[in-house]
Amino acid sequence: MEYKTISLADRVFDQLEHNILNGTYARGETISEKRLTNELGVSRTPIREALNRLMAEDLIEETTNGTVVLGMTFDDVSDIYEVKRRVEVLATRRAAINITDDELDEMKEIIEKQEFYAQKKDTDKVRDLDTDFHDLLYVASRSRVLKRILQPLHHKLMRYRKSSLDLTEKRLMESIAEHHQILNALQDHDGDKIETLMQMHIEHAYKGVVQSYETAQKKKEEERKLAAGLVEGEE
User: Fold this and answer.
1) Which residues of the chain are modeled with pLDDT < 50?
2) How far is Cα 115 from Cα 172, in angstroms, rounded to an integer?
3) Are residues 51 and 89 part of one domain?
């Protein structure tokens, strides 16, 4: 009975985290226990547990007006990539030593699926498989500490990684090609090479995210100016 309660709370947390990180719940939006209970069709107990975890992850906060979504700012994104530059490289070097043949086969299958969905222009699937690729890498490091640090941070980049992949087909295919190179280095158990490749992969990913963010900000500004011009014209 206790297992089911914990399992349900985990599923509720995953769903709420996903909704926050992909923008379904916007930054500054108020979400109440009652609303979430109605939306997800569950009791308040798993909702309350999930909200406590989201608060610990700094994705929401309690205010005098209720529970407010914090989400992710671009400053948060930049900080996460700084952590990835320093810590993910270490995890990848560990994986080069500890990864098993079965894990290498699984990683190869993930990349093949990415190529399949890239041809269909399904960036949601490619992004989700990117998450699987990196999660497997963290597991292969055989470090619970590194996995605990990196896994939630990579997940928090969900919306920004998707926007980057949507921006140009070049970045989409480049990311998959980099995964191939990382896999080859892992198969060779080459720690030095894997460090160079992962640093490059992280930098390219960050540049893609910055580009997509700046493009989105420019579009918002153009829409704001257009709306302001229409209002002035009406007056």
Assistant:
1) 1-5
2) 9
3) no
